[in-house]
Inverse folding.
C-alpha cells in the first residue's frame, strides 16, 4: 500500500511539473502570437520572435547546464576499475560559473541600459516601432530564464543518474574482464550481461522475482536480491561436498528454489553439471530467471561436451530462439543463447564417395573442420588401390 501511494504521488508530481512547464512555455508563445497579430507584418514578427525565443532558450539552457553539472564525491575510496572519472567538465563549469557571476555583478549597475540596447537591436526583427524594443527585451529575458531553469533542472535530475549508471556498468565490465582472466567464464558472462542491462542494451529475464531466491539457503554477507544469492551459491560450489548425483536429485526435486540452487551449483563447478537437467531447464523453464541461469550453466559446460551432446544442446537452444514463446529477442537470454551457438561446432552431412576398389559407404555426419580432409583421404586411397595399380599384370611365378 505504501509503495502504491508513493508511485501515485510520484506520477502526480511529474504531471504537475510537466503542466507547469507547458503553462510557462505556452504563456510566452501566446504573448508572442498576440504581439505579432497586432503588427503590420504579422508573419515576419512571428517568425523573428520565435527565432529570438528559441535562441534565448538555448542560451539559458546552456547556462543552466553549466550551473547544474554534478561533482564526483571525494573521499569515497579508489574506483573499482582501472579508470578514474574525468572531472574536466566540472572544472570548466566551476570556472565559467565564477567568471559569469563576477562579470554580471560588476555590470549590474548598467543592466537597464544593456537591456535597452538589446531591445533596440532586436526591434527590427519584430517589425520595428516603439513597442518592439521593450517587447524584444522582455521576450529575451522571459525565455532566457525559462531555458536556464529547464537546463538546470534536467542537468541536476537526469545527468547524475546517467553518470552513475554508466560508472556502475563500467565497473561491471571491468569485474567481468578480471573474472575472465581468472578462468571464471560463467561469472564473467553474468557480469557482462548485467552491465549491458545497466546501459539499456539488453532486456531482463521475466520472472525475476524474489520468490525463488527466498527458497535458497541464505548465505552470510551475500548481496541482497536473487542475483546475489545465486552468485553466492555459485562461488561456493567447488567447496561443496555435494556430488553430481546429489545435484541432479536437487534439480529433480521440482521446486523453483531447489532447481535454481542446482543450476547455480552447476555454474560454479562444471563437474556437477548434468546435460539432461540443463536441457530440461532450457526447453521447459519454470521462469525466465531459471532459463537464464540454465544457459549460464550450459555456457560453462561447452568444453566438456561430446559431439552428440553438443548437437543436443545446439538443437535445444536454436529451437528456443525461433519459438515465439521461447527466448525473447534482445533479452539477456538471447545474448547468452547466441553466444552458446557461436561456440558450438557446426556439423554438416558430407557424403563419402566410393573408390574403385571399395564398396559404397552410407552418408555420415562429419564435422565441417574434418570435411576438408575427406578428399585428401580419398586421393590417397585411390592412389594405392585405384585402377592405375590394378592395371598392372601379375607376375608369373618362377618355375
Amino acid at each position: 500500500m505504501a509503495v502504491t501511494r508513493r508511485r501515485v504521488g510520484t506520477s502526480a508530481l511529474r504531471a504537475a511539473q510537466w503542466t507547469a512547464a507547458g503553462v510557462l512555455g505556452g504563456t510566452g508563445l501566446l504573448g508572442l502570437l498576440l504581439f505579432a497579430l497586432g503588427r503590420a507584418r504579422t508573419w515576419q514578427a512571428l517568425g523573428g520572435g520565435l527565432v529570438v525565443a528559441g535562441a534565448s532558450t538555448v542560451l539559458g539552457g546552456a547556462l543552466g547546464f553549466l550551473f547544474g553539472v554534478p561533482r564526483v564525491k571525494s573521499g569515497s575510496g579508489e574506483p573499482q576499475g582501472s579508470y578514474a572519472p574525468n572531472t574536466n567538465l566540472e572544472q570548466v563549469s566551476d570556472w565559467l560559473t565564477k567568471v559569469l557571476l563576477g562579470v554580471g555583478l560588476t555590470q549590474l549597475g548598467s543592466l537597464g541600459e544593456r537591456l535597452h540596447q538589446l531591445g533596440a537591436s532586436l526591434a527590427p526583427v519584430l517589425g520595428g516601432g516603439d513597442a518592439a524594443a521593450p517587447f524584444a527585451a522582455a521576450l529575451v529575458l522571459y525565455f532566457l530564464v525559462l531555458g536556464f531553469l529547464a537546463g538546470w533542472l534536467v542537468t541536476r535530475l537526469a545527468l547524475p543518474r546517467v553518470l552513475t549508471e554508466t560508472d556502475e556498468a563500467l565497473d561491471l565490465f571491468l569485474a567481468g574482464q578480471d573474472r575472465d582472466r581468472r578462468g571464471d567464464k560463467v561469472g564473467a558472462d553474468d557480469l557482462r550481461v548485467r552491465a549491458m542491462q545497466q546501459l539499456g542494451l539488453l532486456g531482463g529475464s521475466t520472472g525475476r522475482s524474489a520468490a525463488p531466491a527466498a527458497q535458497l539457503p541464505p548465505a552470510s554477507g551475500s548481496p541482497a536480491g536473487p542475483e546475489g544469492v545465486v552468485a553466492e551459491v555459485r562461488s561456493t560450489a567447488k567447496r561443496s561436498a555435494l556430488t553430481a548425483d546429489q545435484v541432479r536429485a536437487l534439480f529433480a526435486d521440482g521446486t523453483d528454489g531447489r532447481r535454481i540452487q542446482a543450476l547455480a551449483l552447476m555454474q560454479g563447478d562444471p563437474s556437477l553439471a548434468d546435460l539432461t537437467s540443463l536441457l530440461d531447464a532450457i526447453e521447459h523453464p519454470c521462469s525466465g530467471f531459471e532459463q537464464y541461469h540454465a544457459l549460464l550453466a550450459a555456457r560453462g559446460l561447452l568444453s566438456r561436451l561430446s559431439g552428440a551432446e553438443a548437437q543436443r544442446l545446439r538443437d535445444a537452444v536454436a529451437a528456443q530462439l525461433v519459438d515465439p514463446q521461447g527466448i525473447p529477442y534482445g533479452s539477456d537470454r538471447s545474448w547468452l543463447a547466441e553466444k552458446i551457438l557461436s561456440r558450438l561446432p557446426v556439423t554438416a552431412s558430407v557424403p563419402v564417395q566410393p573408390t574403385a576398389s571399395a564398396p559404397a559407404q552410407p552418408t555420415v555426419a562429419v564435422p565441417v573442420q574434418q570435411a576438408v580432409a575427406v578428399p585428401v583421404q580419398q586421393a590417397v586411397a585411390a592412389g594405392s588401390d585405384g585402377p592405375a595399380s590394378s592395371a598392372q599384370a601379375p607376375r608369373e611365378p618362377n618355375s
About this structure: Strands lie at 347-350, 364-367. Confidence is low (pLDDT under 50) at residues 76-81, 207-222, 348-352, 356-399.
